[in-house]
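call fold(seq) -> C-alpha cells
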Amino acid sequence: MKRYRREDDNSYALGITLTFELLKYAPDRAKRVYIHSKMQDGESLEKLKALCKSLNVPMEYGDKPFNILSQKENCFCIGEFEKFSRPLSKDGSHVVLHNPSNAGNMGTIMRSAAGFGVTDLAIIKPAVDEFDPKTVRASMGAVFHLNIQTFDSFEDYSREYGDRNLYPFMLKGRETLSNLKFKKPFSLIFGNEATGLPDSFLNVGTGVLISHSDRIDSLNLPIAASIALFAATADDFR
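ret:
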C-alpha cells in the first residue's frame, strides 16, 4: 500500500457512500474494500458485506490503508478500483473540459453533469487527474456514472465527435445564455479555471456568455457549468 499517484492503475473511493456507488455502478472495476477498526457494526456495514460477497470483492480489515490514503478522521471505508475509460456516446450530449486544473472543481462538475442527465465527459489535456481520490470524493460518486474519455487536443475530440452542436462558454461569447435555444446533441465547452477558453474558440460553434452583474468579473467554473447544464437540459425536466 502506498499513496496514490497519477500513473497508478488503481484509485480509491474514500468513504462508505462512495464505496457503495463504486460497487453499484462500476462493479467490474472494484478490486477491494478496506474497513477501519472504528467502523461501527450496523445496517450499512452488513449491506456492504453482502454486496461485496455477491460481487466477489474481497474485504480487508485494518487501519494502515487509512493512515496512508485518507487524512479524514471520519473515513472508515475505502473502495479500491481499477481506473477506466468509457467511449463517449456518439448521439448523446457532452460536457467538454478544456485544460481543467482543479480536482475539486472537476468532481463538482461531474456531479452536476450526472444530476442533469449529461453522462458523457470529454477532458482535453493537459488536465487534472479525473481519478485522483480528491476528484472522486468531490464527485460524490458521480464519476462512476459517467463515460469519460481524455484527448490530447480539442482537435482530436472534434475529429471523433465534431458532428454536433458546439457551445463554448466564454466572456466574449456572442450569444447570451438567456436568449439561446440549445440544439441536441450538444457539447458544452468550458475552459481552465484561471484563463478560460483561448480566443481560438471564438471560431468554434456558438459562443455563449452567461450574463451577470458587474460586481464580479466572472463566475467560477463549477457554478458556470451547473448553470449551463440547467439551461441546456431544462426541457428534459419540465
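The longest helix spans residues 43-55.
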